[in-house]
Write a structure and sequence with these properties.
- The protein has one domain: 3-Layer(aba) Sandwich (Rossmann fold).
- It is 42% helix and 19% strand.
- It has seven helices and seven strands; from the N terminus they run E-H-E-H-E-H-E-H-E-H-E-H-E-H.
- It has a seven-stranded parallel β-sheet with strand order 4-3-2-1-5-6-7, with helices on both faces.
- Helix 1 crosses helix 2 and helix 4 crosses helix 5.
- The longest helix is centred in the N-terminal third of the chain and has 16 residues.
- The radius of gyration is 15 Å and the shape is globular.
- The mean pLDDT is 92.
Length: 183
């Protein structure tokens, strides 16, 4: 069975100061292609911004793409949440809202990649830690991603529940996460 890789990142990249052009656009393309090239399935929050950019790239490179929507149906997904549907092979309408969707999103992923992000991505990261997921952090991608080491230093945990990999190279990050998952 193909591993599922969830990409969590800023859906409102422009508002978070993470413009999706230049270096971030290139990182998104490389991340999506790396997921496809390694025959993995992409899972996102069926959202805009950085995850959408990765979805477009992964789909173009031949990956299966799954979106976990906060909405109860397609109409709500588009009209209430104003979220895209293009480049998704399958959309799971949870009806759980944004935070409830995050739990399903993380639980549907074998590996969770943190790419940029804001408070929603932080929520997904903490769920992934609690769920014992293999987590990859794309260093230098801005937002929450750049603060994960600091966040971890405040969160002293007695038992290690997850493995966290850091790399600024999308291809190497996916490879390291897959190697960790296989252990």
């Amino acid at each position: 069975m193909k591993p599922t890789i969830g990409v969590m990142g800023s859906s409102a990249a422009e508002q978070a100061g993470l413009l999706i052009h230049g270096r971030l656009a290139e990182l998104a393309k490389r991340l999506g292609k790396a997921i496809a090239d390694r025959h993995c399935t992409l899972v996102t929050g069926a959202t805009s911004g950085l995850p959408h950019a990765v979805t477009v790239a992964a789909k173009a490179a031949g990956a299966m793409t799954i979106g976990i929507s906060p909405a109860a149906n397609q109409k709500e997904h588009q009209e209430r949440f104003h979220l895209p549907l293009d480049s998704l092979d399958l959309v799971v309408y949870t009806g759980f809202g944004l935070k409830g969707r995050n739990v399903v999103n993380v639980r549907s992923s074998d590996i969770v990649i943190v790419f940029g992000g804001s408070v929603g991505t932080l929520n997904e990261f903490t769920i992934a830690v609690d769920e014992g997921k293999t987590i990859g952090v794309l260093k230098g991608s801005g937002g929450i991603s750049d603060h994960i080491p600091e966040i971890l230093s405040f969160c002293k945990r007695e038992e290690k529940t997850s493995t966290i990999v850091f790399n600024e190279n999308p291809e190497m990050l996916i490879d390291e996460c897959l190697a960790t998952l296989r252990k």
